[in-house]
Design goal:
With 583 residues, this protein is an alpha/beta fold. It is built from 18 helices and 20 strands. An eight-stranded mixed beta sheet has the order 13-12-9-8-7-6-16-15. The protein has a six-stranded mixed beta sheet with strand order 5-4-3-2-1-14. α7 packs across α8, α7 packs across α13 and α10 crosses α11.
């Protein structure tokens, strides 16, 4: 059987930085060539970054991406890398589509160009444009109508892009073309346990197509999305040949024994399930036999470790890619701000994390001491600015009571954080979790202020689990646990009035998170939520809180998606809305 050495470039691209992304691809090409690879596959839209949203419509951006593809071909040849076959993802334009209503402006396409010998030899345009969850590709791109097969060293290689492989077409096309390998360029965002789902999908497509499958994915944070890498190669039996690390850039090398190309060139105009079939022969002669290398298979993080690493990567890239030197957060000694502080230290280093303790008349001594304990454990900078005198000054003028009095304390703290942010150029982190965000259990323009919210997609019960996981992991590495044990064990409280507890206003968090999972994550109606065993009175209360808090969520900072359905790109509900679930 013919051999082929494949390289998958797991790249952390930056949206809009076409020059920088081009350099990343070139470096991966150099490394792949040095490793003796014959084919290099990059992730989806790597030259422009992904997702580009409405940037797709700009003719200047499309033309810059097209120029980058040409430049890549030229520079590969100039550096004597022209014998390497590079399949690169980028933004391009459909030339055979008229400008009309319903067609995205300037007819952008999500493309993969095949480069070798200093030129672009063919191009594949993504067929299936997802329009669900976080994806709006049907809005942004024109769908491709061609199946591309390239022949490399006597092996037929089929091409697909991300969503294409979640549909049956590419594996059927690969089998019909008798391809030995299906390569897939991906911009597949992280969500909990998705790595298992991807592996099962690739294995299934390999068996269906009777060919090996190579899956190259982006890595890195982009606004609300985190790309976890997890690139992989499976053989025609669906067995793992090589698998890249999660959450880190990597060049994955795999040697494959593949079936020889046997199919004849298709007649012009040949179609398979409505798609034109094109085959481009780059080289038909098999390679001389060589000693293969054993593909590496990286260890996987467990479920909580995956979530932690995803948030760390999302936070780090949001800070780095947007040019912030440091972050600042209010440290109350509670579980949420404590976990956010630990995440920030992991993401950026303690010297770039600044905490502020703002005790009020109702703050307990252990809240202050727990914040100080964490600062000592991690090395982050902690300062204390008491708000009691400021609060008293406001009250002399306003004489607020009840909720208004409680919220005033939160808003005074926010003014302090934002003042320090402006003066010292920190990015303020909002520390609210998904349970609080769902029910509106936060103060708008108070603890909800900030530029990024690391745990906004993490339910409260999982916040505690993450804290325990991080401390246990530190102990396993011989390190000091970053989270004070008292923070994990004490009952949560906003501490805005004497003796206040979260349970005064909300159901116990295990119950609350169970209801939220049913109503928010799985979109069940109230009767179906009750049918899962929850108290009808509690269900109605929680659902009412969720529905009424939409206006708050719209004004909340972005944060990394780690669940199947986050507040933000995933779940879109009108603010002005009289529909109410009722039992």
């Amino acid at each position: 059987m013919p051999q082929l050495r494949l390289a998958l470039a797991q790249i952390n691209a930056v949206v809009g930085d076409v020059e920088g992304n081009l350099e990343l691809v070139l470096q991966q090409a150099r490394d792949a060539h040095a490793a003796g690879a014959h084919v290099l596959v990059t992730p989806e839209m790597v030259l422009t970054g992904y997702p580009i949203e409405d940037l797709a419509y700009r003719r200047s951006f499309i033309e810059r991406s097209q120029a980058a593809v040409t430049s890549l071909a030229e520079r590969l040849a100039e550096e004597d890398l022209g014998d390497l076959v590079v399949i690169v993802g980028h933004l391009d334009r459909a030339t055979d589509v008229s400008d009309r209503l319903g067609v995205p402006k300037n007819a952008p396409v999500n493309a993969a160009s095949v480069i070798t010998g200093g030129e672009v030899v063919t191009r594949y345009d993504k067929h299936h444009l997802p329009n669900y969850g976080v994806f709006d590709e049907f809005r942004h791109f024109v769908a491709g109508d061609r199946t591309q097969i390239i022949q490399v060293h006597g092996v037929d290689v089929a091409i697909a892009i991300c969503e294409d492989i979640w549909q049956e077409g590419p594996s059927k096309a690969a089998k019909s073309a008798e391809a030995g390998l299906l390569v897939v360029l991906n911009g597949s965002p992280y969500e909990a346990a998705k790595d298992d789902e991807r592996l099962e999908l690739c294995a299934r497509r390999a068996v269906e197509g009777e060919c090996a499958v190579a899956y190259a994915n982006l890595v890195g944070g982009q606004d609300e999305l985190v790309f976890d890498g997890d690139s992989l190669v499976v053989d025609a039996q669906g067995e793992v040949v090589a698998r890249a690390r999660q959450f880190e850039p990597e060049l994955l090398i795999a040697d494959l024994d593949l079936q020889a190309a046997t199919a004849q060139m298709p007649e012009p105009g040949t179609r398979f399930e409505g798609l034109l079939v094109e085959r481009t022969v780059i080289s038909s002669d098999p390679l001389p036999a060589y000693e293969p290398v054993t593909g590496s298979v990286a260890e996987r993080w467990d479920d909580l470790g995956e979530r932690w690493q995803a948030i760390v990567l999302g936070l780090r890239d949001y800070v780095e890619k947007n040019g912030f030197p440091s972050v600042l957060l209010g440290m109350s000694g509670g579980i949420d701000s404590t976990v956010v502080a630990a995440l920030a230290v992991d993401a950026l280093g303690a010297d770039r994390v600044f905490g502020v303790s703002n005790p009020s008349a109702w703050s307990t001594e252990h809240s202050r001491s727990d914040a100080a304990d964490q600062a000592e454990r991690t090395g982050l900078d902690l300062r204390t600015i008491a708000i009691a005198p400021i609060f008293d000054s406001y009250q002399e003028a306003l004489h607020l009571e009840g909720i208004a009095e409680e919220n005033l304390q939160a808003r005074i703290r926010a003014v302090i954080w934002m003042g320090l942010s402006n003066a010292e150029n920190h990015l303020v982190l909002a520390c609210g979790n998904k349970s609080e965000l769902a029910t509106g259990y936060s103060t708008i323009y108070g603890d909800a202020v900030g530029g990024y919210a690391p745990i906004k997609d993490v339910p409260k019960t999982i916040v505690w689990e993450l804290a325990k996981w991080r401390n246990a992991w530190a102990e396993s590495q011989g390190q000091t646990p970053p989270i004070p044990p008292n923070t994990i064990s004490k009952e949560p409280s906003a501490e805005l009035r004497p003796g206040q507890r979260d349970s005064d206003s909300l159901p116990p968090y295990p119950v609350l998170d169970g209801i939220l999972d049913a109503y928010v994550e799985r979109d069940l109606g109230s009767a179906d939520v009750v049918a899962e065993g929850f108290d009808p009175v509690v269900v109605e209360k929680v659902i009412t809180l969720v529905d009424r808090a939409e206006y708050k969520r719209r004004q909340y900072p972005p944060g990394p998606k780690v669940s199947k359905r986050n507040f933000g790109r995933d779940r879109r509900v009108p603010i002005t809305n009289r529909w109410r679930e009722s039992l």
